[in-house]
Amino acid sequence: MRSSDFMKAIPDATRAHLPPALGDFRWRARAWLVQIHYGNPRLHYEVWSLSRRNLLELGLHFEHRDRALNARLLNHFDAHAVAIKAELGGQVEVEPWDKGWAKVYETLPLEPFDAAYLEKVARRLAHVIAYLQPLLERAQA
User: Fold this and answer.
1) Per-residue pLDDT reduced to its tens digit, 68-79
2) Which of 3, 11, 105, 110 places its Cα 20 to 30 Å from the Cα of 54?
């Protein structure tokens, strides 16, 4: 499977593993990444192929133009980092990023883009969304 086909297949594969209340999302894909969001495309879940590093990044990105909002979200998630790591695993990081952005993410070994890897990534992304989306909604309330 080509990278672009893999990325375009992630939304439907992920939706199949989400609770119905979280199945209504929007998405956009490029050949090397897919972004899933619930109304604000600048606050999105992302799967990003870092092929030069042989990694796949998966996580929640805060890429709003309002740096203060990104910082508030980062602080909110950082305050929940112990619980996030307890649920999603110690490999998950909560950290600032480029351009005043921030993210809650992990990296996985990059594997061949096939049906088995698609299922693995989709299940993991669904778990991440199911746990982090309620935290994001509370942070924005």
Assistant:
1) 999 999 999 999
2) 11
